[in-house]
Design a protein that fits this description.
The chain is of the alpha/beta class. It has 8 helices and 7 strands; from the N terminus they run H-H-H-E-E-H-E-H-E-H-E-H-E-H-E.
């Protein structure tokens, strides 16, 4: 009697829910993992269990790590007085990949959206204002996606922090409607270097 593939089918179904993977890609990935069980599947399963148990949001900036305060926030070399505001962790990681920014970050957790009922309190905007004062921030760089909601959020933050700190935003290189996570490192670097006052 043939063995059941119920667990394998369930794994394929879960993998297909990941961004960038559909059912066909998920089947290929699972088959590859099974064929390389000792080299890939077992270590991956162990590591996923460990990350599931320890991953958490940084209480200070909203980054993802395994401690209450992330490595970026605890790195004294990054206490430059510059704070880069991004929508989500994927954008923070995109900025880090570019290697162009050496300060600290603040992850909002989304953008303002009246249609979706997302106001300042649902985001980390009040925490941003607190950090500007507590950490002696001299410049806030708004590295928000060039979407309507991103621009609305940038203007709201500018209104809240205006006069308290230098406010800049990313300039050339970021296309209208573009998202940071999909940009190449060179484009992010050019945009960061050419940021402008709001």
């Amino acid at each position: 009697m043939a063995g059941s593939t119920k667990d394998i089918d369930a794994l394929i179904e879960l993998m297909a829910r990941l961004p960038g993977l559909g059912p066909r890609s998920a089947r290929r990935a699972v088959l590859h993992l099974i064929r390389k069980r000792a080299l890939l599947l077992t270590p991956l399963a162990d590591l996923m269990g460990q990350v599931a148990a320890t991953a958490r949001e940084c209480l200070n900036c909203g980054n993802v790590g395994t401690f209450d305060i992330c490595d970026i926030c605890t790195d004294e070399r990054r206490a430059t007085g510059e704070l880069c505001v991004v929508e989500d962790v994927a954008d923070l990681w995109a900025m880090e990949r570019s290697g162009v920014f050496k300060g600290r970050y603040h992850v909002l957790g989304g953008t303002l959206s009246a249609l979706d009922g997302v106001g300042p309190e649902e985001l980390r905007i009040p925490r941003l204002a607190d950090r500007v004062t507590a950490e002696s921030i001299s410049e806030v760089i708004l590295a928000l996606n060039a979407t309507i909601d991103g621009q609305t959020t940038a203007h709201y933050i500018a209104d809240q922090l205006g006069g308290r700190v230098r406010l800049t935003s990313l300039a050339q290189g970021v296309p209208i409607g573009g998202e940071l996570d999909y940009l190449d490192d060179g484009t992010i670097s050019a945009a960061m270097r050419a940021r402008k006052d709001l």
